[in-house]
Amino acid sequence: ARAEAGGGGEARACAEYWTGAHYDGLGEPRRSLTALNRAVVAAEPLNSPSFLIQIRANLGQTNAISARYGDAIHHMDHAIAAKQASRQPGVASTSLAYCLSSRGLVRADMGDFDAAYADFDAAIDALENSNDPILPSLITQRCLALIYQGRFSEAAERAEWSEQRAIASRSRFLILSARVLGSYARWRDTEAQPWFDRFAEATLTLHASARFQRISYKYGWITEAMADREEEGATRGFA
Questions:
Q1: For the chain, which terminus, N or C, has the lower number of CB atoms within 10 Å?
Q2: Cα–Cα dist 196/182, whole Å
Q3: pLDDT over 80 (residue 83)
Q4: What pLDDT digit, counting tens, does each position of 130-160 carry?
Q5: 104-110 long-range CB contacts below 8 Å, 24 or more apart?
């Protein structure tokens, strides 16, 4: 509102960009897309190519969460190419890494696993540092792709590693996200009830914290489990 009242084009573009970025993080992709599209309009007259590229990267990631995969790939291809062209050798780029990993997850959900794992590998290479705090986030996306393939044991091992790294960096959202993936994969691999209970508890904790990013697939997994048990009320609630 302040930017609209007289902050100028740059202030308005930045305000819209960060509004969109935060809505994306909260798992509200429709609001995020609305703000990011306004950010593009506000940023175009500013003659700031790098800023526009970053907005495009976020548009790609938010479209991916919205399951608008055609738009997601379009924006991410553009952003990745530009970031790779401007990157200095040996210099880490967390924004490039996250965009590559996000495109990998889209490709995995579309069934193109060879291209997905190539993106995941390239994302880690872009970090240049195995201690980067963003690494657990990238690994959890890879875990989801492994779960799509039914590679549950491998997914669980990577998720548990990510959870420990997230604990060290005190990232509550990443801790819970990795715990959800790891315990779900262990449950699918072993059918042991305690793993399912741990998975459901972590999902509900995420829900209570109002962090809904990519939470729909977690609800979907619980729905399937409840349906198998013929627990109609819980099935409908999570569906």
A1: N
A2: 10
A3: yes
A4: 678 889 999 999 999 999 999 999 999 999 9
A5: 104/141, 104/142, 104/145, 105/64, 105/141, 105/144, 105/145, 106/64, 106/69, 106/72, 106/73, 106/76, 108/144, 108/145, 108/148, 108/149, 109/69, 109/145, 109/148, 110/69
